[in-house]
Every structure is written in C-alpha cells, then in structure tokens.
C-alpha cells in the first residue's frame, strides 16, 4: 500500500493534502459555529454547507475542461490561491468583528470556487505522479487521507473554537493551504504537447460530454458510484441525529463516532491491498457494499455505543474500499486528453448522489422514523448489488489508453473551423468476414464518438453486398484533425487493425472528406484544391 509514497512528489503532495483537508474540516466547523454566534438560525447554519458545496457542483464540469486544456500545475496553483484568499480574508474580518452572515456565506462560496477548480485536476494528475500499476494504491491512500481528515478535523476545530474562537480555524485553514502551494510551485512539470493548440472551453466541455456518453466502461463506474452514494450518504447525513437522539451523545461523543469511521478507513488502507491481490474489482465492490449495508442496519437499530462504534469502523472500511476501487477504475479508463473533464462527471455524480441521498433519507427520517431511514437504504444497497455486478460490471481487463497519433505533424490545411465535416470510409469485406466486421465496427463507432464524432453509422450497399460505407461527422475540420492527432489511443488503434484484417485482399479502405456546402470558406480559390489534395493523408493507417 505504501508503494506510491516512494515517489517524492506524490509523498509531499499527499502530506500537504492531509494537512489541507484537516484545515478544511476545521473551517467547516468554525463557519457553522460563527453563523450561530452571528444570530443565524437553523436555515442560515445549513446555508453554510450549501455555500461550501454548491459552487463545486455548478463549476466542476467546466473546471474539468480547463484541467485538460490548461497547464494543470498552474490551474492548481490558481485554485489554491483563490481558496487561501477566501480563508485569510474571513480570518481577518472575523478577528476584527466585521464578519456578517452575508460575508460569511460569500467568502465560504469563494473558497468553494477554488476547490471546484482543484477537485478534478488533482485526480487527473495522479497518473503523472505514480506508475499505472500503483494507481489503485494511490487512490486508496488519497481516500484514507480524506477520511482521516474528516475524523480529526471537526474535533480539532471544536477545540480551537473553545480556546481562540472561530477566527483561529479560518487562519489555520489558510496556513494549511501553503504546503500545497509550495509543493506545486517547486514541481517541474513537463509542458503539455498540444500540436493543434488549446481547445476553446466550450468545445472542451462538449467533447468531454461526448466521451462520457460513448465510454460504456466508464459509465459502469458512474452507475456504481451514483447507486452507492445515493444510499450510503444516509449514514453520513443522519449520524448527528443518531448521536443526539437514540445514543444520547454530546459533541464529544459525535466526534468519537466520526473517529470510528476514520479509523475504519485507515484499517482499510492496510487490508485492501491484500484483498485486491485475491479478488477483482467487482467482487471487492459487491462485498464491501454488502458489509456497508449490514453496518448501516446495526447502526440504525442498536442503541449500544460500543456496538455502533464497531459497526462504524466496518462502515469506514467498506466506504474506503468502494470509493478507492471506483476512483482507481475511473483513472485507468481515461486517456490523457479527456481525463480531467471526464473525472469531473465522476465528481458530479458522487457529490450529486450525496446531496440527493442526504435530502431523501432526511425526509424519510422526518416522515417515518430514524430507524427506517437507516434500514431502507441498507436494503436498497443489498438489492442493487447483484444487479450492478451482472448488468453493469466494472472492467477487469487492462485497457491501453496511451495516446497514438496518426501523423507526426498535422496537415495545416485543416487548421480552421469550417464545418460540419462528413467523413465517408468505403470498406470492402467478403461475406465470410461480414459478421465479425460489423461487430468490430460497432466498437469503432463508439471510439469515433469518444474522440469527437457527433454522428456515426455504417451502411451496406444493396447492389454490391461487399461494399460497406462508414460515415461520421465532426463539428469542424479542426475537430476531426484532433481525432487523428491528439485523441487516438492504442486501444482505438487495435480496433482499426482488427477491422483492416477483415477487408478483402488488396482493397484498402478509401476515405473521403466533405465540408458542409454552405460553410464560409476564406480564400475559396486556393483552399478547395488544397483540401482535396490531403484526402490521401487522412486515410486510416
């Protein structure tokens, strides 16, 4: 489990994030407490959590797109500076007794904006910090990092508030960010290789959405994440009510319960590497989901603090197992060009599942009983596990997502935004290979859509049954060029080679490119011949 920590940069960033995550939880406790001191009621105190999460939910998708089109190190530095400014400003205003409820919400939201730009990019840089075979361990360590901070941060925040007031939690949160800033500042990250230049953020967001829609393996990860978080979030949302109500605990007792979850996550960091060597991801997720459901059942029905504490340790272990397995699978399934923007959807699903689940199970607790709000999601987890394993299993085979370019240098004639572009590929396939060819083309169609095609189809000529026409469109000629130069993967190339192995001997596929006839064409008297001249360059290799 400790293998990723052998890498100096990962180790330094992991330690800095542990300190920063702890500071963030201290900040959360301090902000909620301060809102009460300022005369805010239950709604105002709840709005603090809204201000801390809503900007992330709204901005994480464009933030992920920026993580793929800008230098990730500089984007992370900018995000940390934004968060630091909000925390330092709040500390100074609170120390001067100048904070108002509105200012508190605004500055909390400003810090969340900084976090929104950091969340998908921090995940996207993991393959740059460790080797591919160490990504599961890195995801596990990062998950343990967050859970340990969740356990100790609120307790430290409560102590600081009692000793020095809420402003102390804000000041220490600001200081905790400096470690990440320092690590990122000294990181000598190689420059990104973008032969076609950076994408416009609007185009990058659309390309990310297309990729997610056309990647069934990644969709399996999203499905597992949303089902698990929708149900599992009930425990996190209702744990304070359980502590105050049936268990009769105060603030210190609630902190003890959180420490139980955190200790389970730490135990999971030791146990999971051994379990991963003996079981695949589907077995791990299914077993851990079942354990989490059983733990929720115990937590919601038993009123003995030691038994509940033991069940919370099991829940923490199961929580970290499921989330680290899903996170590692997501990172391994994504190519470099789409990693941050696709992981943004993973974060969106995760956060949305928690937000909706908390609302649903809180409503159930008010309408029925607290016990029902624990038992219902536990039952849903147990029922959904066999369905998920059989219908949308996580991928188990290794997929080579390394970048492969068709050309060492892109043709300059397609460096413009004319479009849409229609690509027509003529395939000649004998009847003996027709079935295998169509099955491969189904997968190639998904690959075309993942890399930028807006529509894809394949037709068979009724008069010449050996002739198949593959057609797909791209928004612009430049977008199609990105498919060739920046977005191809070794897995996609292998699919192309499989299709080429099935064509009739000596009948290499012929490719034609057609521009929308009404598209404006600067320099029409010279561009059209040049465009036709590069058709041969765009044939599949």
UniProtKB/TrEMBL annotation:
One of its GO terms (molecular function) is transmembrane transporter activity. CDD domains: MFS_MefA_like. Keywords: Cell membrane, Membrane, Transmembrane, Transmembrane helix, Transport. It is found in: Cell membrane. Its main location: membrane. GO terms for cellular component: plasma membrane. The chain crosses the membrane at residues 12-35, 41-63, 75-96, 170-187, 220-239, 251-272, 308-333, 345-364, 370-389. SUPFAM superfamilies: MFS general substrate transporter. It is a multi-pass membrane protein. Pfam families: MFS_3. Residues 9-396 form the Major facilitator superfamily (MFS) profile domain. PANTHER family: INTEGRAL MEMBRANE EFFLUX PROTEIN-RELATED, STAPHYLOFERRIN A TRANSPORTER. This is Predicted arabinose efflux permease, MFS family. It comes from Streptosporangium canum.
């Amino acid at each position: 489990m400790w293998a990723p920590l052998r890498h100096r940069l990962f180790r330094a960033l992991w330690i800095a994030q542990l300190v920063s995550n702890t500071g963030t939880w201290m900040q959360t406790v301090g902000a909620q407490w301060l809102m009460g001191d300022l005369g805010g009621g239950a709604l105002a105190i709840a709005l603090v959590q809204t201000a801390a999460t809503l900007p992330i939910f709204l901005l994480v998708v464009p933030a992920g797109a920026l993580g793929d089109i800008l230098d990730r190190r500089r984007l992370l530095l900018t995000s940390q500076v934004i968060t630091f400014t909000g925390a330092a400003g709040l500390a100074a205003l609170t120390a001067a007794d100048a904070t108002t409820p509105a200012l508190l919400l605004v500055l909390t939201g400003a810090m969340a904006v900084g976090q929104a730009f950091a969340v998908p990019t921090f995940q996207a840089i993991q393959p740059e910090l460790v080797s591919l075979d160490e990504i599961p361990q890195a995801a596990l360590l990062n998950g343990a990092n967050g859970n340990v901070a969740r356990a100790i941060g609120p307790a430290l925040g409560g102590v600081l508030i009692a000793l020095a007031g809420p402003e102390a939690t804000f000041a220490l949160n600001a200081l905790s960010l400096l470690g990440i800033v320092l690590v990122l500042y000294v990181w000598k990250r190689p420059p990104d290789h973008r032969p076609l230049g950076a994408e416009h953020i609007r185009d990058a967001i659309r390309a990310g959405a297309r990729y997610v829609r056309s990647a069934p393996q990644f969709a399996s990860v999203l499905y597992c994440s949303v089902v698990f978080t929708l149900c599992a979030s009930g425990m996190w949302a209702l744990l304070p009510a359980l502590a105050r109500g049936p268990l009769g605990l105060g603030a210190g007792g609630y902190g003890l319960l959180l420490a139980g979850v955190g200790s389970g996550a730490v135990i999971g960091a030791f146990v999971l590497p051994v379990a991963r060597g003996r079981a695949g991801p589907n077995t791990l997720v299914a077993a851990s989901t079942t354990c989490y459901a059983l733990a929720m059942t115990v937590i919601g029905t038993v009123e003995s603090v030691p038994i509940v504490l033991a069940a919370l340790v099991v829940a923490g272990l199961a929580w970290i197992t499921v989330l680290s397995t899903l996170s590692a699978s997501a990172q391994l399934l994504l190519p470099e060009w789409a990693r941050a923007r696709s992981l943004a959807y993973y974060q969106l699903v995760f956060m949305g599942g928690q937000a909706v689940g908390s609302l649903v199970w809180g409503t159930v607790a008010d309408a029925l009983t607290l016990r029902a709000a624990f038992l219902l999601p536990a039952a849903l987890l147990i029922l959904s596990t066999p369905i998920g394993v059989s219908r949308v299993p996580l991928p188990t085979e290794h997929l080579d997502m390394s970048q492969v370019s068709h050309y060492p240098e892109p043709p300059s004639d397609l460096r413009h935004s004319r479009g849409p572009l229609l690509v027509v590929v003529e395939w000649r396939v004998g009847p003996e290979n027709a079935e295998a060819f169509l099955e491969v083309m189904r997968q190639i169609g998904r690959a075309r859509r993942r890399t930028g095609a807006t529509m894809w189809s394949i037709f068979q000529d009724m008069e010449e049954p050996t002739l198949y026409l593959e057609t797909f469109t791209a928004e612009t000629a430049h977008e199609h060029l990105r498919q060739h130069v920046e977005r191809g993967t070794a897995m996609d190339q292998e699919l192309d080679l499989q299709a080429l192995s099935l064509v009739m001997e000596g009948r290499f596929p012929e490719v034609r490119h057609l521009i929308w006839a009404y598209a404006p064409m600067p320099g029409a008297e010279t561009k059209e011949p040049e465009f036709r001249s590069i058709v041969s360059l765009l044939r599949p290799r």
